[in-house]
Specification:
- The chain is built from eleven helices and 13 strands.
- By secondary structure, the protein is α/β, with parallel strands linked by helices.
- It folds into two domains: about 80 residues, Beta Barrel (Elongation Factor Tu (Ef-tu), domain 3); about 210 residues, Vaccinia Virus protein VP39 (Rossmann fold, 3-Layer(aba) Sandwich).
- The chain has a seven-stranded mixed sheet, with helices on both faces.
- β3 and β4 form a beta hairpin.
């Protein structure tokens, strides 16, 4: 089930805030008393309860939506059903591995990966996107997996053996924002869930340093691909300004560096919760991982 509709979040919060789904949009919904749904608003995803009552369907507006969107706001919603039983049977670890080899491969092709490309996955972590890059290149080219976490890089090497991949090169760094590659030598650079992190040498956001480095290292026509999540950005203050980083402020800085906007790709995934022992022990579902748009920019040729 997937429906899209516009509705106004109630202006008055009387405890458990319920918003009625427009009758036309609710026509195809299954009449279960309560069901979990994935709710997407402004490229951000929430897990909510959908309730079926005598007079129609109601969406439980959780506190996170209240905080992000506000009460009384006209809003565009996308609702997708979640099959919790199916997820639990398959297991989140199997679902993550399946995502890396199928969905992520497709995402990276949409980003613009082409055979024989040279790709940098900077701040690659455990390689969830590195694997997708490698498979999208179909065993050609090179994927440089760059990170300061030696344990994570070791896990990437184990995945290489699992998937019989031979075009990944892991690079262990000291956590600085420099890209140790020659000028005009790379086709695609991934900066996923990284620019909000503090640079260990300058103690500032990695963003401005990395964008300039990416512009230097990319070939003409090369792609800078970014993926950021609202929760992380709000924790990071823009240098010399008392406000949080936003997707808009990041894009402005990228364009000021000299890049041109190209296109976006939906359904990037935030894997932070997946690497939380606490979340996993609580029974984390794959569907609960935060989603976000991948924004892509080109170095003018």
């Amino acid at each position: 089930m997937r429906i899209t509709f516009d509705a106004v979040i109630p202006a008055v919060d009387s405890g458990r805030l319920l918003m009625k789904i427009p009758a036309e949009a609710a026509a195809g919904l299954e009449k279960e008393t309560t069901q979990k749904v994935r709710v997407t608003i402004n490229d951000k995803t929430y897990i909510c309860n959908l309730l079926c009552k005598m007079d129609g369907f109601y969406l439980h507006i959780i506190s996170k939506i209240k905080k992000d969107i506000g009460l009384g706001a006209p809003t565009s919603f996308t609702l997708e059903s979640i099959d919790n039983n199916e997820e639990k049977q398959e297991g989140i670890h199997g679902q993550v591995l399946a995502w890396e080899t199928t969905t992520c491969k497709s995402l990276m092709q949409k980003v613009g990966m082409k055979k024989d490309a040279r790709v940098i996955d900077f701040g690659c972590g455990y390689g969830h996107y590195t694997i997708g890059c490698s498979l999208a290149l179909e065993q050609t080219g090179e994927v440089f997996a760059v990170d300061c976490d030696a344990k994570a890089l070791k896990w990437i090497k184990e995945k290489e053996q699992r998937y019989a991949i031979h075009n990944i090169k892991t690079i262990h760094t000291n956590g600085a924002s420099a890209l140790d590659f020659p000028d005009n030598s790379i086709d695609v650079i991934l900066l996923y869930d990284i620019v909000h992190i503090q640079d260990k040498e300058s103690k500032n956001s990695m963003a401005s340093i990395l964008f300039k480095e990416a512009y230097r290292v990319l070939k003409k026509g090369g792609i800078l691909s970014t993926l950021n999540f609202s929760g992380d950005l709000k924790k990071m203050m823009i240098e010399n300004e008392k406000k949080a980083m936003t997707v808009e402020s990041i894009e402005r800085e990228i364009l000021e560096t000299g890049f041109e906007y190209s296109h976006s790709v939906a359904d990037g995934i935030h894997f932070d919760w997946y690497h939380s022992k606490y979340r996993l022990e609580k029974g984390l579902l794959f569907s609960e991982l935060e989603r976000g748009h991948i924004y892509n920019y080109v170095k003018p040729g």
